[in-house]
Design a protein that fits this description.
alpha/beta, 3 helices
C-alpha cells in the first residue's frame, strides 16, 4: 500500500526496513490513518525493553535519514504488540494496519448479468474503473453511468486502466 505522508510517498516496507535494523526494537507495528484534514498519518508502535525519550529521538533521526519523514512513535509493551502481530490462527506476523478511510465502488448490472466485483478505493488514492462489463441480452455495453438511465461517464473501450476515479465518496456505477 502506498502512503502519502507530509508530501512524501512511502511504502510500509521502507518503514519496516528502518525498524528491522534497530537493535533495541524487539517488535513493532505500523498503523496508517486518515487525519482530520484527510491526509495520511502514520504511527509506529515500538516494543522494547527500556523505552525512553532518547530512543524516540534516535528513531526519528533514523527515519528522517532513510525516508525523509518521522512518523508518530509510541512505546507499547512487547506482549501487547505480539498479540496484535499474531492474531488467533495466524502464523505470520501482521505488522501493518491500514485504518485509512475507504470507499466502495459498486457495479450494478442494471438488469443484466455478470456485474464486476466491487472495488475498494483508499482516501485520496485514485483508482482505475474496471474494464470488465456485464452482459444483457439485446444490449451492447458502452460504458458506466452514475444512474441506471444516465449518460455514460466512463466509456467502455476494452483498455484497462483508462478511467480513473479520484473522488472521496462511495460510488455505484450502472
Amino acid at each position: 500500500q502506498m502512503l502519502k505522508v507530509k508530501g512524501t510517498t512511502l511504502y510500509p516496507a521502507a518503514i519496516f526496513d528502518v525498524l528491522d535494523n534497530v537493535e533495541y526494537v524487539e517488535n513493532y507495528l505500523v498503523e496508517a490513518n486518515t487525519n482530520e484534514i484527510g491526509m495520511d498519518d502514520v504511527s509506529v508502535f515500538i516494543g522494547c525493553k527500556n523505552p525512553n525519550d532518547e530512543l524516540i529521538k534516535d528513531l526519528k533521526d533514523r527515519f528522517r535519514a532513510r525516508i525523509r519523514i518521522a512518523p508518530n512513535i509510541q512505546f507499547l509493551p512487547i506482549d501487547e504488540i505480539n498479540k496484535r502481530n499474531y492474531p488467533e490462527a495466524k502464523r505470520k506476523p501482521i505488522k501493518f494496519f491500514d485504518n485509512r478511510k475507504k470507499y466502495n465502488i459498486t457495479y450494478d448490472a442494471n438488469g443484466g448479468d455478470d456485474a464486476p466485483r466491487s472495488q475498494i478505493k483508499i482516501h485520496d488514492e485514485p483508482i482505475h474503473i474496471t474494464q470488465e462489463h456485464p452482459t444483457r441480452e439485446g444490449y451492447d455495453f458502452v460504458g458506466w453511468s452514475k444512474s441506471s438511465n444516465g449518460e455514460v461517464i466512463y466509456p467502455y473501450n476494452g483498455t484497462p486502466g483508462v478511467h480513473v476515479y479520484s473522488d472521496n465518496e462511495d460510488l455505484v456505477l450502472y
